[in-house]
Amino acid sequence: MYPDLKLFVAGEWRKTASDLPVVNPATEKEIGRLPHASKNDLDDALDAAESGLRIWSRTAPRDRSDIILRAAKLMRERQEEIAQSITAEHGKPLQQARMEVIRGAEFFEWDAGEALRTYGRVIPAAPGNKITVHHHPVGVVAAFSPWNFPMSQPARKIAGALASGCSIILKAAEETPAGAIHIARAFQDAGLPPGVFNLVFGTPSEISEYLIPQDAVRLVAFTGSTNVGRHLTTLASEHMTPVLMELGGHAPVIVCEDTNVDRAAISGAERKMRNAGQVCTSPTRFFVHESIFEDYANAFVKRAAETVVGDGTIVNVEMGPLANDRRVPALLQLVEDARDKGADVRTGGGPHGNRGYFFQPTVLTNVPNEAKIMQEEPFGPIAIINPVTSLDEAIQKANSVPFGLAGYAFTNRADYIDQMIDEVEVGNLSINTLEASLPETPFGGVKSSGYGREGGSEGIENYMTIKNVWHSSEII
User: What is the 3-state secondary structure (H, E, C) of the chain?
Assistant: First the structure.
């Protein structure tokens, strides 16, 4: 079911002279050849996006919404085909891939509704004067999506851009291109005008450094690492181009003494291993009150060690491989550094099996602050569980990293909840649940985790400009 990989420019599919392999991370076998865009391809995409913008920005919001909804319906109907493609290129279990397809469709369905709600307003003024506020599409969007969610991450950016009336050039991840290709197919079949959505692949630095300085590009939308986000923000700032940045996290989990220990530990272990921990909102740094620390750690370790690891196409597999070969040595280095500095490796800690990019579900306890993993997001199936003496200490440790994307807490005390709402430095705080966001909720970070929001009624605002109009009826 893996698709034929092509670029999508000006409403047409194209191959190029240059291509590179796409590899199944569970088998290490090539499953496709991905064409890489040349500068001519990028110029064509820019021309197409400008032409598409002239059409799409003048298309009635109801008509834009209808096309987006038709495309989302096609994605739902093609769920199994898309999910099979995602599992083949990313490795995640097929059931999780199916869920991702639906989540991607939900982003489009939400923003299709938001397309109808880009309201302006009338500001009271003196007689003979009318002051109105208007929202307009910002223009051509250059968007960059990561490899960890091949369908839902591109969907966030495409949905916001199209709902607002913008055109978009998306550079999706070269390791996992199929999700974005399926989205492009759905929009082509739904009747999206040519040039409104363009999809390219290639060397990431070359594409970003070519597209971002272009006069036609009016917004840069990026999801990925903080280091790359800083570089793209600097590049965009040289041209006064606004950016929407959803960057890295290192999510804390505060477990208070009144928590149901087994339920909190089991849910934490299961969520930590979802997508092999390759999630920017993945719960990673668990700060557990000392009175329940051992019971919590034991329950967590037991459930983590029971995680069924294997090829995502096999029934009952809970965790697939890491998405690429770079992640295995990176995780090994973090584990060894923590061990050398005195951490306890309670389970896992190394590769799993002798084929594919598999890593064992890993739990570290009593990890000292000077260990690299306390400051660096592992982006893999590694959990850190440390004891704390109080909620104040837990909040201090939660806030001690430069990241602030998602945070979690388990407690039933209203005073604890109020304190954490006020003091935990994250863009998304979840209490007694490990769900971080929905299409209808704003999602984004603080500090080095970026700025701007995707989703919710706030999400579409990034893709629009505001024009204030003052009209006096008095003729001068």
Answer: CCCCCCEEECCEEECCCCEEEEEECCCCEEEEEEECCCHHHHHHHHHHHHHHHHHHCCCCHHHHHHHHHHHHHHHHHCHHHHHHHHHHHHCCCHHHHHHHHHHHHHHHHHHHHHHHHCCCEEECCCCCEEEEEEEEECCEEEEECCCCCCCHHHHHHHHHHHHHCCEEEEECCCCCCHHHHHHHHHHHHHCCCCCCEEEECCCHHHHHHHHCCCCCEEEEEEECCHHHHHHHHHHHHCCCCCEEEECCCCEEEEECCCCCHHHHHHHHHHHHHHHHHCCCCCEEEEEEECCCHHHHHHHHHHHHHCCCECCCCCCCCCECCCCCCCHHHHHHHHHHHHHHCCCEEEECCCECCCCCCCECCEEEECCCCCCHHHCCCCCCCEEEEEEECCHHHHHHHHCCCCEECEEEEECCCHHHHHHHHHHCCCCEEEECCCCCCCCCCCECCEECCEECCECHHHHHHHHEEEEEEEEECCCC
What mean pLDDT is predicted for residues 166-179?
Answer: 98
Percentage of the residues of the chain whose pLDDT score is greater than 70 = 100
Indicate which residues carry an active-site annotation: 246, 280
Asked if residue 1 is part of any domain, the answer here is no
User: Per the confidence metrics, is the pTM higher than 0.70?
Assistant: yes
Mean pLDDT of 11-38: 96
| 98 and 46, same domain (yes or no) | yes
Domain count within the chain: 2
In a shared domain, residues 242 and 337: no
